[in-house]
Amino acid sequence: MVLPVPAPISDGDRERVSELLQQACGDGRITLEEFSVRVGAAWAASTDVELARVTEGLAPTPVVGAARTVDRVVTVFSQRKRRGRWRLRSGRLSTFTLFGGTHLDLRDVITGEDEIEIEGTCLFGELKVIVPEGVEVELSGTSALSSEELRLAAVPRLPGTPIIRVRVNAWFSSVEVKSRRPGDGGVREWVADNLGL
Predict the structure, then answer these.
(1) pLDDT-derived band of residue 67, with 50, 70 and 90 as boundaries?
(2) Closest CA to 32 of 101, 87, 79
């Protein structure tokens, strides 16, 4: 039996697969984190066989949790965590935190947008944003008597991933944006959140 010889691929082939993955992310069939991993593999592929593996197992329809749409998170004298599968309405999210903590985990967010905008105000509170590694983030906004930290892993940006723009005006607050490897969670996530490691 003669096995087919893997054929080389072009950047156009990689772009077509990246667009297919972006559509799957927008439809809710894969998360932003899974999109980041798969699109990285697409751009690293050198043969048609490797490229075909990138799209294996794509769900034909959105999975449970893909319909939950969020466009605003308000936290007052409390703590709110947004994680797991959730959909951003038109790639924009508004936040308001007063004497509380807002934690946004974007690794499982569903969006087909090229840009995600998070805008908000944090007064006497804490805002934490977690993104998948390889996604570009810009952090801006007014900061008065507050701490602001952008901690992204020193890895290449994955082509085709959205840019995330975080604009937060903070007074007497803490604003932190950091990236995490795919699959980070459990004890390691608790240590990172609670011990800052």
Answers:
(1) low
(2) 87
User: Would you give the DSSP letter of residue 80?
Assistant: E
What tokens does 24 get? 């799957």
Strand partners, 10: none
CA atoms of 97 and 129, how far apart (whole Å): 13
Decide: helix, strand or coil at residue 57: coil
- What the block records as the tokens of 100 is 């509380």
Chain centroid, CA 23 distance in Å: 15
Read off the pLDDT of residues 100-156 as tens digits, 9 standing for 90 and up. Answer: 999 999 998 888 888 999 999 999 999 999 999 999 999 999 999 999 999 999 999
Q: With contact defined as beta carbons under 8 Å apart, do 87 and 110 qualify?
A: yes
Q: Which two tokens stand for residue 108?
A: 């499982």
Tell the burial category of 197 from Cβ atoms under 10 Å away from its Cβ (0-12, 13-18, 19+). exposed
**3-state SS, one letter per residue, for 99-148:** CCEEEEECCCEECCCCEEEEEEEEECCEEEEEEECCCCEEEECCEECCEE
- Number of CB atoms found within 10 A of residue 85's CB: 16
Distance CA 65, CA 117 (A): 21
d(CA 126, CA 173): 6
Tokens 């990236």 identify what position? 179
CA 159 to chain centre: 14
